[in-house]
Specification:
The structure is a homodimer of 425-residue chains.
Chain A: H1 2-5, H2 26-32, H3 35-38, H4 62-74, H5 81-87, H6 121-128, E1 130-136, H7 141-151, H8 155-158, E2 165-170, H9 176-189, E3 192-196, H10 200-213, E4 217-219, H11 222-232, H12 250-264, E5 279-284, H13 289-298, E6 303-308, E7 326-330, H14 333-347, H15 351-358, H16 360-376, E8 382-384, H17 390-406, E9 413-417
Parallel strand pairs in A: 1-2, 1-3, 3-4, 5-6, 5-7, 7-8
Helix pairs in contact in A: 9-10, 12-13, 13-17, 14-16, 15-16
Chain lengths: 425, 425
């Protein structure tokens, strides 16, 4: 049945001659038809906003809304002619010519919660969101990170739920069989396939198979890898990261040590160790000191954070250490109150304690107290964290940290790559 | 002097007509001549291995070594003909034709420690390593992450110090003047420039300016962004992430909460909360439970970790919660002993305590004890962490976590993008 309508991918590679396309067994088919189990789950790190209903289809207003959002935000004209050409008129979500069946039943539902979404083809696709498959021979974090960053360019339509997107990460894909299964599934779902595959055979296979199956695809790291290869005059190894093992480099131990240190120094603990920190963060409760510290620790910085609490003296050592390590954090009082209210609720504070913590008068007073301290210590840069994600504040801290050490006109963060085991593909 | 030899970049954009190329002031020049202050610093998160001397130049053996490393690791032939063509013969590090001066004095030293590296041109370039400039209009984390991942493909030569690489991150680059300064500096240093610039004007400017100045370059996210734009039928906003502000989404609070939770649950604390965790890690000391927990928390998972210590009972609640959340960690005893010895040294343990903690007999006995517990709890998957970076173990845990919840044949981690504020460019 299904198999017969799927074109065979030309045999590009000699390594697994017997493995495809025959491995596409009915077992896989029947299982992948089960729409409930394989798609969107409530994800701990993604907001699903269950209370909001998806709006009705309004494809034609996409560009209008986008223009509006853009002009509101930037107030100026942006031209992306190449893409405009590609994207207008918006491509229909019809399956590619040589590609798999459009039987509604094989397109799994993404509505989650066990609903059977085998309804109208395009309707359900729009309601469900378009699928992006990320395929990696390693951890998949690079694919995830890059796709997240690229999706930042489509927030104007994602936020409105006009073009909902579902991403699906397939990590540790190391053999052709599995790769082929995923590409077939992508064809069935009408997904875009973005991949990072170190093995050039695998990458070439993915490219060709996607072409044959009508799956739009792109190699995430290829342009960078090629640019670096040409720059260094060295061919890439073609070996997935981690395959070589041995992350027990000095850097590895440093990162672990930074995390251990940072956890122990959280929330003003052990002020006697402040001089051992690379970075010291100072601010009132809920200015994001802890998550910021942890984020920086993952990058190898030993971070201590010291809370500012009215009526509690800051530790004496704070004023004795190198003052260039210290960064103040401040925040808009209205936002802080919102955050604190949420926090008090989640901690189940009683009404009395809550008022002291999140009442506007108290919030303002505490921020003024903090600002007074910052004024008395003018060498501490004060970072306004309102509206900033942790990553953004971290970027500012790291930039200033290096600027202060480097003291040069063109601020940059330089690293020497000799041995490293940083982020994995 | 210098300015006159630099070709003017054609004026592509009307926005900053007066700003270039006249802004290349002598002030910048003289400062950038100071080799000490602007380049490689000892980086908290990079191992520099000061004791190893850089080997003499052996360019001609690069490919040999690469082949050797490759065949040792993989035992099979890898063909990358396109790159082979590009990379052989290795390009000379000579400055591009239309490009800036080759005066040795303007190429800053990257040897660090205040050495003046104004020596022989090629010699010093080889000793210093080739420069890769990463330019971002945002945090720069995406550029850093992608370049790290791509450099994983060149470990065979980085490890040998045959092609040392120095990366330089320029984040928050939002105007043309600064962009031009950086590109000029890249030309002077003979650097490769990799960029993520959301504004299409900026991206186009970078591309053209690099062309004119002979700087090899690549747009890191362009292929993904274009593929997504075509897939969604929506043009990218052209607005850097973070410009819109407001990361106070439900997801943001979830991530913060996960980090707070995870820190509080570190090292077996508060066993009464184990049922509130998404993931519970169990293992002996120094199997990486803490950094792994923190890494997973950053991705939004609430993680608790429970140490296995001989003579100390595991908390009763561990056996009462959903057993599918629990993951055991194990490690090779020889590696564990190495790690523990380093740990004991850094903590300044006395010899008696140290022996108990890191003596081989004790290490083996404790791992056997842990394995007995794992055998008694067969629903806990046991992950061998030897030779794995935190990111790799995390990928396995996350994959299994989702597999267990999804129970489908094609394991994948699915997310719905409606509102998000994930990793920043």
């Amino acid at each position: 049945m299904l198999q017969s309508s799927l074109p065979a991918v030309p045999l590009l590679l000699p390594r697994h001659p017997s493995s495809f396309p025959a491995t596409w067994s009915p077992r896989h088919n029947s299982k992948s038809r089960s729409p409930r189990s394989c798609l969107v789950q409530e994800e701990p790190d993604r907001a699903v906003e269950p209370e909001r209903e998806p709006p009705p289809r309004r494809v034609s207003t996409q560009l209008n809304r986008w223009s509006r959002a853009r002009s509101i935000r930037s107030g100026r004209r942006i031209d992306w002619p190449a893409l405009r050409k590609k994207t207008a008129p918006p491509p229909s979500p019809a399956p590619p010519p040589s590609s798999p069946p459009s039987e509604a039943s094989v397109r799994p539902s993404v509505a989650g919660e066990g609903t059977e979404g085998d309804g109208e083809d395009d309707e359900s696709e729009l309601m469900e969101g378009k699928a992006i498959y990320m395929v990696s021979d390693g951890t998949g974090w690079t694919a995830e990170h890059s796709v997240n960053a690229a999706l930042g360019q489509f927030e104007h339509c994602l936020v409105d739920r006009i073009c909902p997107v579902n991403t699906h990460l397939f990590s540790g894909v190391e053999d052709m069989d599995r790769l082929m299964e995923i590409i077939k599934q992508a064809a069935k779902e009408g997904a875009l396939l973005l991949y990072t595959l170190a093995d050039p055979d695998m990458a070439e296979y993915a490219k060709q198979a996607c072409k044959v199956w009508g799956v739009p695809s792109a190699d995430i790291l290829r342009p960078i890898t090629e640019a670096i290869a040409t720059h260094l005059g060295v061919a890439p190894s073609g070996i997935p990261r981690g395959a070589a093992g041995a992350p027990l480099t000095a850097e590895y131990f440093k990162r672990i040590e930074a995390i251990d240190f940072t956890i122990k120094q959280d929330d003003g603990a052990k002020p006697q160790n402040l001089d051992r920190a690379h970075i010291v963060l100072v601010g009132v409760s809920r200015t994001g000191k802890t998550p910021l510290s942890i984020y920086l620790a993952q990058k190898g910085y030993k971070v201590a954070n010291v809370p500012i609490v009215m009526g509690v003296d800051l530790p004496k050592t704070l004023f004795e250490i190198n003052q260039e390590k210290i960064f103040g954090l401040t925040i808009n009082p209205v936002i802080l109150q919102t955050i604190r209210k949420a926090r008090a609720k989640s901690l189940g504070f009683g009404s009395e304690m809550r008022s002291n913590y999140s009442e506007m008068d108290h919030v303002r007073e505490e921020l003024e107290y903090a600002n007074k301290i910052f004024t008395q210590n003018p060498t501490w840069p004060v970072i306004e964290v309102t509206g900033k994600a942790i990553e953004e504040t971290a970027a500012i801290v790291v930039r200033m940290y290096h600027d202060r050490r480097q003291k040069c006109l063109m601020p940059r963060i330089s690293k020497r790559f000799v041995v490293f085991s940083g982020n994995m593909r």
